[in-house]
Design goal:
Blueprint (H helix, E strand, L loop, with lengths): L4 H9 L7 H8 L3 H12 L3 H18 L4 H7 L5 H12 L3 H7 L19 H28 L6 E6 L3 E6 L7 E2 L2 E2 L1 H8 L6 H5 L9 H6 L1 E10 L2 E8 L2 E2 L4 E4 L7 E8 L1 H4 L6 H11 L7 E3 L1
Parallel strand pairs: 1-10
Antiparallel strand pairs: 1-2, 2-9, 3-4, 5-6, 5-9, 6-7, 6-8
Helix pairs in contact: 2-3, 5-6
Length: 299
């Protein structure tokens, strides 16, 4: 059995119902043990895990449409508000309340799972993950180099931090986030606010447009941006692309007059234990910005 399309369609039609493994097995005409093992062999996730992901994807749309968390939990047949919230936060990192308050928009992904025969070998997959993770950094650095090339920035610092976090700082102008004391939240929203991406979605995405800061943020388990500008320090924290609060603002009592800093950690549910490579960063720097590399420090 290698065609689960009828089952995918059945799940979509009954997404609001409590879908047990036995019901899915009966629909396909196989035993729960057999269908569970076969699904795992083909797609790499439990069949019940797939159903849970689809329910939670649908729930995001309802939350953004204004439904209460408890009503969404009941709609998709979770046993309790607490159980729904726990499952939601486990998958997306943010609570349903944070998603409801701060996520801008969300389209339910289409159903498209490929069998393992179409998936890369373990070695190819590891190399692909490593390349994608470094492309995230190149995207952020590209913006810093634009400031540098235009003469608004004198230095760029890249620091490899513990727990596979990475910090990028430039002393450029800093993103313009205020006007006459009013903080413009929408500036960061338009530049950085992404959407949660599950490992299943990522595996089906193919070539990714890594020139998009929103995608970089969505693939980050956590990301913090700090901006120094006009005597103020602004900060925003994200989890998998979703803002965790309103932009904070305070008087700048630091020695940094202006600049932008991003600290991020790639999503371990996607990239697992893949680590940043100083050698890869240096190679990219030599190939793309050899004339400016003297103003870049990598620690």
């Amino acid at each position: 059995m290698d065609d689960f399309k009828p089952l995918f369609e059945y799940v979509e039609k009954n997404i609001e119902n409590k879908l047990e493994l036995k019901e899915l097995a009966d629909f396909m005409g196989y035993s729960p043990y057999y269908i569970s093992r076969k699904f795992m062999d083909l797609y790499g996730i439990p069949i019940t895990g797939y159903v849970r992901i689809r329910k939670l994807q649908y729930s995001i749309k309802d939350l953004l449409d204004g439904m209460k968390v408890i009503d969404v939990a009941m709609k998709y047949s979770f046993e309790s508000h607490e159980g729904f919230t726990r499952s939601f936060k486990s998958l997306y990192g943010s609570s349903p309340k944070d998603i409801k308050n701060y996520l801008q928009e969300y389209d339910i992904p289409e159903v498209e799972l490929f069998a393992n025969c179409k998936i890369k070998s373990m070695e190819e997959e590891k190399m692909s993950l490593c390349d994608d993770m470094h492309k995230m950094i190149y995207t952020i650095l590209g913006n810093s180099f634009e400031e540098l090339a235009a003469g608004f920035c004198s230095k760029i610092e890249v620091c490899l931090l513990p727990d596979n976090c990475l910090k990028i700082f430039d002393d450029g102008r800093g993103i313009k986030l205020d006007d006459d004391g009013v903080v413009h939240e929408e500036v960061l929203q338009n530049l950085f606010s992404g959407k949660p991406i599950t490992k299943v979605e990522y595996a089906q995405m193919g070539d990714l447009p890594f020139d998009d800061l929103k995608l970089v943020n969505s693939l980050s388990e956590k990301l913090t941006i700090t901006v120094w500008r006009n005597g103020k320090i602004y900060e925003q924290d994200y989890i998998r692309g979703v803002p965790q609060h309103s932009v904070t603002s305070k008087n700048n009592d630091s020695t940094i007059p202006h600049g932008t800093q991003i600290i991020l950690k790639p999503d371990t549910s996607i990239f697992e234990d893949t680590a940043f490579s100083k050698e890869k960063l240096l190679t990219w720097l030599n190939e793309n910005y050899s004339d400016l590399k003297a103003k870049v420090r990598i620690n």
